[in-house]
């Protein structure tokens, strides 16, 4: 964990009045935040207005704004890479905890999926180029360029603590962050509108939304449609890019997180180039574990994959199999969430007996990790509470309703207790940070141990047969050797717990990330809230739940290493 240094000797010492540089640092941050807020509010206004027929805002207006924002953000990134980052002493420090490999790897993965989506979208709009505005083809091409430039920028610069062009860099980072959030909101609204059109067409209802083009509302077969999607390749492009929307949503969230960390690190001073924190240790999977956690976690992972495949096959098949698929899906999730809750509770209980010192060093990255865990969990909390109200108030008392209610309650409990376990784990010191049981070192200074048995007469010094040489560090070695076995079982249990929760979070990420939507297959909430409202709730909150699972996996891996 990195600590900020004392100001330079030429600067004013800390006192009641902050230095001018510190005052302007706050002013620069405020200016960049105000810029981002205003840009984001303008984008949100156009995006939400373009989703309804009765508002005179068209999808071409939304695409034009997003294209302009992405071009400006890409130009600033190029300026940063070619000018700002290459200035002398521009990056004197690099935050070792920023931009971890899992976050950059996830960004690349979702970025590739976003590029595929842009290819599909470009092919779709090119299928009827004669009756479409050119901005609809320019938008996905611009987004592809923006994704490539931004991914490269975040991969090489995520750890930078920039000290040149401070205000311009802060404003550029915040503007790019606002652009990613606008792209995220566009994808959420577009996916919700598409689902609403599909639901309305299936039930013979009409909709008052229009962000999705008219040709997509009726599947491209409506009479009098000026832009029919009648060819097979056009249908493939259309279905393909809607299937890839969740990956685009996750990409925007990942990029926004990394940009926020970079914004916080602008002008930051670190104690050293490597910062201050836990010394990274080599990860040896399954080493020093009881194997119960990894084995049970792998078993649930395999069973979860089978349940997910079965669910997708049965839900997309005949109607009669949908309820059976939901029962199997909810049953597996209830078992998995219940075990995860109990295991997280047991981990918190084990920490009551852990003597490792708490790490109180200042670490903005850890603070952000905790904030992301708590904030991303709110998405799943919201879905669960909406489901609880719908089941308790408006649902008939049947098996599916009981499973839905149990699933929602366990989802809340699991997120809560897992967050408690992870956050407490991240604030524990590394192995070997246990407080010494021996008296202060000064008590042994000047003593020559001519007789090894005399060591055992010293206070709080347990006997040990492993001392082979009379030296002042002998008593401390004895305590470490004797106390290590007493802590060994706790370390093994914590490693088992971390691996079990890690594997469970992976399968619970795979299911919603690759298309499992029991929220719509189960009609309880749809009937209670209406499809449009429920689709908006799920499409806004679920991406945060998916992000939470990925972030929990990375945090649990760190917990495993620190245990």
Written description of the protein model:
The protein is mainly alpha-helical and 563 residues long. The protein has 2 domains: 23-202 and 230-265, no CATH class; 292-430 and 483-562, no CATH class. 67% of the residues lie in helices and 1% in strands. A two-stranded antiparallel sheet has the order 1-2. Helix 3 (101-126) packs across helix 8 and helix 15 packs across helix 16. It is globular and about 55 Å long. The two termini are 17 Å apart. This is Otopetrin 2 (Predicted). Belongs to the otopetrin family. Residues 1-20 are annotated as: Disordered. The chain crosses the membrane at residues 30-50, 62-81, 101-117, 137-156, 242-263, 290-311, 327-351, 371-393, 497-516, 528-548. It comes from Rattus norvegicus (Rat).
- Net shape: globular
Instruction: Please state the average pLDDT score.
Output: 76
Distance between the termini: 17 Å
Share of helical residues? 55-70%
Question: Domains counted in the coordinates: how many?
Answer: 2
Tell me the series of helices and strands, N- to C-terminal: HHEHHEHHHHHHHHHHHH
Estimated structural class: mainly alpha
Biggest sheet character: 2 strands, antiparallel
Total number of helices: 16
Enumerate the strands of the largest sheet in spatial order, edge to edge or round the barrel.
Answer: 1-2
Low-confidence stretches: 1-16, 205-210, 214-224, 273-283, 436-450, 459-486
Portion in beta strands: under 5%
C-alpha Rg (nearest Å): 28 Å
* Beta strand count: 2
């Amino acid at each position: 964990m990195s600590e900020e240094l004392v100001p330079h000797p030429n600067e004013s010492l800390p006192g009641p009045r902050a230095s001018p540089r510190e005052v302007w640092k706050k002013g620069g941050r405020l200016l960049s935040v105000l810029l981002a807020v205003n840009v984001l509010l303008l984008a949100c206004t156009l995006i939400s207005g373009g989703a309804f027929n009765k508002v005179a805002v068209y999808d071409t207006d939304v695409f034009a704004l997003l294209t302009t924002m992405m071009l400006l953000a890409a130009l600033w990134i190029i300026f940063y890479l070619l000018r700002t980052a290459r200035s002398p002493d521009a990056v004197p420090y690099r935050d070792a905890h920023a931009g971890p490999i899992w976050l950059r790897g996830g960004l690349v993965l979702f970025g590739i999926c976003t590029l595929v989506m842009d290819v599909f979208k470009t092919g779709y709009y090119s299928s009827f180029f004669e009756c479409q505005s050119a901005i609809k083809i320019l938008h996905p091409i611009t987004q592809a360029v923006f994704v490539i430039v931004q991914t490269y920028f975040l991969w090489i610069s995520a750890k930078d603590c920039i000290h040149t062009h401070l205000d311009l860099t802060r404003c550029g980072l915040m503007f790019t962050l606002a652009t990613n959030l606008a792209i995220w909101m566009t994808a959420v609204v577009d996916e919700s509108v598409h689902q609403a059109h599909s639901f309305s067409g299936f039930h013979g209802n009409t909709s008052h939304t229009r962000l999705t083009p008219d040709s997509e509302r009726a599947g491209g077969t409506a009479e009098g449609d000026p832009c029919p999607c009648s060819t097979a390749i056009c249908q493939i492009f259309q279905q393909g890019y809607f299937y890839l929307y969740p990956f685009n949503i996750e990409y925007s969230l990942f990029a926004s997180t990394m940009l926020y960390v970079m914004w916080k690190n602008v002008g930051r001073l670190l104690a050293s180039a490597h910062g201050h924190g836990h010394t990274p240790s080599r990860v040896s999977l399954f080493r020093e574990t009881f194997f119960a956690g990894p084995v049970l976690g792998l078993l649930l992972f395999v069973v979860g994959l089978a349940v997910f495949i079965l669910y997708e096959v049965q839900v997309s098949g005949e109607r009669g199999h949908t309820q059976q698929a939901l029962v199997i899906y909810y049953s597996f999730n209830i078992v998995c969430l219940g075990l995860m809750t109990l295991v997280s509770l047991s981990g918190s209980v084990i920490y009551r007996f852990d003597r490792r010192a708490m790490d109180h060093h200042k670490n903005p990255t850890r603070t952000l990790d905790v904030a992301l865990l708590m904030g991303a969990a709110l998405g799943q909390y919201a879905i669960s509470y909406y489901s609880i109200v719908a089941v308790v108030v408006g649902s008939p008392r049947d098996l599916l309703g009981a499973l839905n209610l149990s699933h929602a309650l366990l989802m809340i409990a699991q997120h809560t207790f897992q967050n408690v376990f992870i956050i407490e784990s991240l604030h524990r010191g590394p192995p070997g940070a246990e407080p010494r049981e021996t008296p202060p070192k000064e008590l042994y200074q000047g003593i020559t141990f001519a007789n090894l048995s005399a060591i055992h007469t010293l206070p709080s010094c347990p006997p040990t047969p492993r001392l082979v040489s009379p030296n002042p560090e002998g008593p401390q070695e004895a305590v470490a050797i004797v106390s290590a076995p007493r802590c060994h079982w706790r370390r093994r249990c914590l490693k088992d717990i971390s691996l079990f929760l890690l594997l469970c979070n992976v399968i619970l990420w795979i299911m919603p990330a690759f298309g499992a939507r029991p929220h719509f297959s189960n009609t309880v909430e749809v009937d209670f809230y209406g499809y449009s409202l429920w689709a908006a709730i799920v499409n806004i909150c679920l991406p945060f739940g998916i992000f939470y699972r990925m972030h929990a996996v990375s945090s649990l891996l760190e917990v495993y290493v620190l245990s």
